[in-house]
Amino acid sequence: FLMQTSEMLRKMCMRNLVRKYCRGLTAERKVQLQQKVVTSAVFSGKKEGYLESLSQPFLDTRLKENDLNPKVLQLIRGENIKYVTPVIKYDRNGFKARERLLVLTQSSAYVVEMAKIKQKIEYSTLKGISTSNLSDGIVVIHVPEDNKQKGDVILQCEHVFETVTKLCILANKQSQVKVVKGSLRFRVGSGKEGTMVFTVGPEPQVFKDKTGQLTVV
């Protein structure tokens, strides 16, 4: 009887401590924890660098709305901007690296070059999001095969866990994030596909190899 009473008191004490902790959380802290739960579901045990990312709080955004070109703001007016981060975009054919911004609104993802919107992906049409299991920051956003889209979007993000988490939460595509090993296929456009190969080497690099594949080291 004493053992049962002790166990009941222990559980009651634990519930009270948890309740007190939850009530003391700020709104910002709750959002952080909710995002980290999604990150864990997507990446835990799958991608290198996940454990190191646990202690790093996610920022609301890496760039503020005022940092965007006024022409871009005018083009996406009426949409609530949620997150902006610098990225490197790789061309789908020659794989040339281009400095871009990834702008996530409530309804769409935009790849932006200065005052131009280079590509718009509505979340409702987004087919999936792919990353590798290694420590690189490559993210591939898979888009539908139609005339509106040039092909899948290949990006390199400095804060890959943060960026993918924000994207899959806003797009409600958590179940469609894939962490791949070895290689992945991406759509170039006009029914064509390309291959990206992930490997380990002495220093990080991204290049087009002799076979025409995009190699990520």
TrEMBL record:
InterPro entries: Myosin_TH1. Pfam families: Myosin_TH1 (PF06017). One of its GO terms (molecular function) is cytoskeletal motor activity. Residues 47-217 form the TH1 domain. GO terms for cellular component: myosin complex. PROSITE patterns: TH1 (PS51757). It comes from Cisticola juncidis. The gene is Myo1h. This is MYO1H protein.
